[in-house]
């Protein structure tokens, strides 16, 4: 008898795994706990192509998950990579290709060697703004080492992580995103010999112009920052839902995945969270208008 197909596949969204505190950051201890919990509960971490195949009707293990990281920070290599390897888990890195530099691989967590500094998200943003993105991002040699180890596979997060809709008129926006994607595709081909259909939108933003530019270059699976939905067989590959993972132990992650996969509580939870988010935005807008 064949294995039962997954009812839905949660897609987890991470950015940082580092001892440095701050937003969108998970500590190495909690990330270790989360990966241990996935392994102990029998979860399979899919590849990006396996996930795309699932959306298209292919069978994956009933307990499946897709683990994703945005931007390509150095801490993904230093901390997340050895922890994934420890627990036999596989993740997807959406890399801002212009940030990746050259040079030898640096020491990783557990190696016994002094580890490079892996700053907070706020500090990383300042370093990128100062033109020193290579200091806080993975190197291509590290990317190749992770892909060889099977801990990460790397896909597109554009070349510069620019929100072109905020910087240009429509013609400039269309030209900007098209060029950004083309440069990223060229870098992935040059460094990894990879022609990928997987694209994660910077800051989760996209519109019809963005989608048209991406499809013209061969991208077909688009990852959002929207958590309020389900990735199911027959689901839209142009709108992949992702759950932002909190800096909490594995028990929290198992609870959150349980909600995400539940056909009754999941939709109720998503509607409640969406309502809360809309209320919060409305309060922020009222405060801004009063200022």
UniProtKB/TrEMBL annotation:
Q: Where is the NodB homology domain?
A: 63-291
What CDD domains does UniProt report for this protein, alphabetically?
CE4_Ecf1_like_5s
Instruction: Mention any Pfam family matching this sequence.
Output: Polysacc_deac_1
* Superkingdom of this protein's organism: Bacteria
Q: Which UniProt keywords apply?
A: Signal
Recorded hits in SUPFAM superfamilies, A to Z, give: Glycoside hydrolase/deacetylase
Cited InterPro entries: Glyco_hydro/deAcase_b/a-brl (IPR011330), NODB_dom (IPR002509), Polysacch_Deacetylase (IPR051398)
Q: Does the keyword Signal apply?
A: yes
In terms of PANTHER family, this protein maps to: PTHR34216, XYLANASE_CHITIN DEACETYLASE
**What name is this protein filed under?**
Polysaccharide deacetylase family protein
What organism is this sequence from?
Answer: Advenella alkanexedens
């Amino acid at each position: 008898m064949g294995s039962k197909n997954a009812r839905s596949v949660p897609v987890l969204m991470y950015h940082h795994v580092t001892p440095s505190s701050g937003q969108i950051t998970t500590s190495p201890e909690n990330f270790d706990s989360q990966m241990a919990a996935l392994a102990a509960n029998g979860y399979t971490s899919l590849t990006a192509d396996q996930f795309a195949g699932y959306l298209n009707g292919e069978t994956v293990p009933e307990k499946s998950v897709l683990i994703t990281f945005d931007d390509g920070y150095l801490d993904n290599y230093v901390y997340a990579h050895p922890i994934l390897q420890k627990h036999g888990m596989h993740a997807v890195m959406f890399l801002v290709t212009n940030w990746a530099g050259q040079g030898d691989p640096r020491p990783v967590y557990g190696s016994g060697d002094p580890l490079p500094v892996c700053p907070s998200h706020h500090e990383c943003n300042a370093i990128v703004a100062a033109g020193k993105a290579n200091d806080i991002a993975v190197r291509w040699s590290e990317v190749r080492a992770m892909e060889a180890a099977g801990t990460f596979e790397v896909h597109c997060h554009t070349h510069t992580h620019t929100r072109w809709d905020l910087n240009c008129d429509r013609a400039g926006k269309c030209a900007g995103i098209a060029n950004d994607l083309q440069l990223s595709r060229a870098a992935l081909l040059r460094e990894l010999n990879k022609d990928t259909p997987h694209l994660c939108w910077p800051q989760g933003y996209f519109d019809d112009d963005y989608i048209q530019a991406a499809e013209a270059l061969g991208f077909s699976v688009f990852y959002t920052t929207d958590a309020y939905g389900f990735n199911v067989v027959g689901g839209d590959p142009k709108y992949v839902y992702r759950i932002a993972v909190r800096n909490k132990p594995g028990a929290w992650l198992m609870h959150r995945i349980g909600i995400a996969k539940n056909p009754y509580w999941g939709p109720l939870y998503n509607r409640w969270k969406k309502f809360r988010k809309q209320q919060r935005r409305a309060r922020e807008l009222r405060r801004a208008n009063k200022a």
